[in-house]
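Exam revision sheet. Question 4 asks you to relate a sequence to its structure. Input first:
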Amino acid sequence: MVLPWVESESEAQVEGWSEGCSQDGEHRSALELRRLSVVAAISAAEVRCQTLLPLPQLQHLASDRVAKDRDRVASLELSAASWGRQIRAILQQQPEAILEQRPLAGPRGEVEFWRRKAAHLASLRTQLRGDPMRRVLRVLEVLELTPPAPSASEAAAFLTSPHASMSPQVTKSSQHPPLLRLAREVEAAYSEAEESARYLGALQPPIVALDASEGLDDLVAAFRPLLHSLLLVWRHSRAYHSSTRLSNLLCLVSNAVAAKGRAHLNSTLHATTPPTEAAAALGSTLRACGTLKALYFEYRSAAFEERPDRPWPTPQVFRPLDMFLERCHDQLHVSRTAAQYETLHGVELGGQSGRALSARLVQLSAAFASARSALSSSSPDPLAAPAETFDPAFCAFRAAVKSLDRQRVSRD
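Answer key, C-alpha cells:
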C-alpha cells in the first residue's frame, strides 16, 4: 500500500524540479522520498526472492544527451557500482554457508537455497537483458567528455591551424567492463542454479517423507528412496557430480536424521523411565540410524563402480549423526549400568557378615544414585547438551562407577 504512493509522490516531485531549487528544502525532501522509494522497492523485491537494480531517473533523456552530462554520468557510475555489489552478493552465495548460518539445518534448506538463488538470478538476468539496462550500458560505453581548457600556446596553434579540432573526447566508463563481466557471470550462475534446483526437486518427496516420519520404522523407510534419488542427481547433474556438493547435502541429511532420532528419544524417555526400557529405546534408535550409514556404503560402492574417478565422500560427512550416536552410546552405558545397580535394591545377604554386606550394598546403590543424579543435573537434555558441558560430567560419572565397582568387588 505504501510503495505505490511513495513512488507516485517521488516522481511527481522529481518532475517538478527547476534549475534553481537544487539546494532548497523541497529538493532535499524529494531526494529523501526517492531514496525511501528505492529502499522500499528493494525490500519488496527481496520478499519475492528477487533482486532489484534501481535505475536512476533517465527515462526522459536521450542517451547522447546523458553521455555529455558529467553529473548524470557520475550518477550512472555510482548506480553501476551499487549494482555490482548487489550482483556479487548473489553470485557469492554458496550452499556451504547453510551450515555456518544454521548448524542444525536439514536437506530441505539446500533445496530451498537453490530455488531462491535461481529466482534472484532470474530477476537479475531479466533486468540486465532489458532495454533500460542496455541503454545505461550504451551510455557508459561511449562518453563524450569536454577536453580541458587549452594553454595559451595550444590556443594560438588552434587559431593558426586550419585543420585543428577541439572535438570532445570519446572514452569508456571504468564501470562498463565490470558490469558486462558480471552480466556474463550471472548467465553462467543462473544456468547452474536453475539446473541444481530442477534436479534437487527429485529429492523433495523423500525429504518430505523423512521430515514427516513419526516413528523409527517410517524413518528407516525414507532412507533408501532418499539415497536412490541422490544417486540419480549425482549421475545427471553437473553441479552435484562433485564430492564437495555431495558432502554438504549429506551433512544436512545427517542433521535431519539426528534430529528425528533425538525427537523420538525425547518423546520416549523420561525421568521415571525404567533403565531397561531406556536401554531398549536407545538400542533401537542406534540400529535405525545405523541403517542410513549401511545403505550409504551400498550406494557409495555402486557409484564407485560406475565412476571410479568421481567417488562419493567418505563417511566423515555423517559427523553430526556420529556425534548423536556417540551420545546415545553414552546414555546406553548409563542405562545399562543403572539396570545393573537396580538389582542391588532389596538384596539381603546371609552369613556371619551378611548384615554388614547388605548395608554396604545399600550404600553403594545410594552412591550410584548420587553419581547419576549429578550427571543428570549437569545437562537436563543430555542428547542435545554441548560436548564441553556433557563430556566432563560423563567422565566424572564413569570414574565414580569404576570406583564403586572396585568397592563392590572388594566386599564380595
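Marking note for examiners. The CA atoms of residues 47 and 141 lie 33 Å apart.
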